[in-house]
Amino acid sequence: MTTEDLVRAERSQFIKSKAAEIGFDFCGISKAEFLEEEAPRLENWLNRNNHGAMSYMANHFDKRLDPRKLVEGAECVISVLLNYYPSERLPEGADDLKLSKYAYGKDYHFVLKEKLQLLLEAIQEEIGEVNGRIFVDSAPVMDKVWAAKSGLGWVGRHSNLLNRDMGSFFFIGEIICDLKLAYDGAIKDYCGTCTRCIDACPTDAITEPYVVDGSKCISYYTIELKDAIPEDVKGKFNNWIFGCDICQDVCPWNRFSQPTKIPEFSLSQELGAFKKNDWEEITEEIFRELFRRSPLKRTKYDGLKRNIDFLKPLQ
Q1: pTM, rounded to two decimals
Q2: 247 annotated to a ligand binding site
Q3: Tens digits of per-residue pLDDT, 258-277?
Q4: What is the predicted pLDDT for the residue at 314?
C-alpha cells in the first residue's frame, strides 16, 4: 500500500466513524464519475413519460448523471443512510386513513441536512480545506444509485434501496466533495426471484422488475400530482392519503427493520391521536399548525383534502 493509499484509507475510516458518531446508520464512499449504466435507463424512463407531471425529473439530465457538474473538482460521493422506521405506527385497519411512515415526524430535510453539515464540518476540521456540498433531495442527484455504488445496499425490484441488515426505511443524503478517498464497491442483488412488491402494488406502478412508472404510484397521486386524481384509479388507494408504503411493507427484507434512534422521526402525540373523522374535518388552521415542520406540508391543505375526498365512494 502506497502512502497515498494509506492516507485515503485513514481519511475514509475517519469519515465513517464520524458519521456513525453523528447518528447515521450507514456510510459509504464512491468515486464521483459519470453514471454510464444509468444514462440509457434514465433516458428510456423519461421517454416513456414515467415521471408524469414531475417535470423537474427531466431537467439537468447531464448533472443528474455526473456529480462533477454539481461540485467543481468533485472526486467522491459520500452517501449516508438514516433510519426512520417508527417504534409506534399509526393504525392501518380497513377504516383507518394512512400516511407513509416517513411523514410521521419532522421533515427529514431539516434533520438530515443538519447532520450532514456536522459531518462536513468535521471533515474540514480534520483534513483542512475541502470543497464540498450537501445534498438532500435538493439537486439532481441519483441518491439510490450512489448509495448502491457505495455498498450500502442494492436497488430492489420496487426501486428502493435495500440494506440486508435493516431493510429499506431510510432517508438518503450525500456530500459530494473534492477529496480522494478509499472507495467502496457495490454489493450483489439479493431480491432473488421474489415478486411480492410487484404483486402487491394496487395501481400496477411497478411495470417490470426494477422499473416504477412514477405516474402510476400512489405516492405520486397523493403528493406530486397537483391536478385532480384520475377517476380510473378510484378504489385502488387502500386508504392512503399521503404517500404509500405497500411495496416496502410486503418486502421480506423489512422484517429486519429496527426502530429509529432519531426522536424527530417518531410518531408525534398529536398525530397519533388523529382518527378518521379528525382527518375528514381538519381545518386549514389545524393543518398549518400541526404540519408546519412535517413532510405533509408539501401536499398543502387543499391537496390533503383532495386526497381524503378521493377515497369517498361515488354517490
Answers
A1: 0.95
A2: yes
A3: 999 999 999 988 888 889 99
A4: 60
The residue from 5, 137, 165, 302 that is catalytic is 137
DSSP notation for the chain:
--HHHHHHHHHHHHHHHHHHHHT-SEEEEEE----TTHHHHHHHHHHTTTTTT-GGGGS-HHHHH-GGGTSTT--EEEEEEEE---SS----STT--EE-GGGSSS-HHHHHHHHHHHHHHHHHHHH----EEEESSSSS--HHHHHHHTTS-EE-TTSSEEBTTTBT-EEEEEEEES---PPP-------TT--HHHHH-TT--EEETTEE-GGG-HHIIIII--SPPPGGGTT-STTEEE---HHHHT-GGGGG----S-GGGSPPHHHHT--HHHHHT--HHHHHHHTTTSGGGGGHHHHHHHHHHHTSPP-
Q: Residue 315 pLDDT > 60, yes or no?
A: no
Question: Would the annotation count 226 as a binding residue?
Answer: yes
Whether the per-residue pLDDT at 81 is higher than 70: the answer is: yes
For 188-202, the pLDDT digits (tens) are 999 999 999 999 999
Residue 161 annotated as lining a ligand binding site: yes
Q: What is the pLDDT of residues 6-21, one digit of tens each?
A: 999 999 999 999 999 9
Q: Where are the domains of the chain?
A: 3-87+105-177, 196-257+268-310
- Residue 64 marked ligand-binding: yes
Report angle CA 187, 172, 66 to the nearest 5 degrees: 75
Whether 76 has a binding-site annotation, put simply, is no
Q: Is 137 a catalytic residue?
A: yes
245 appears as a binding residue in the annotation: yes
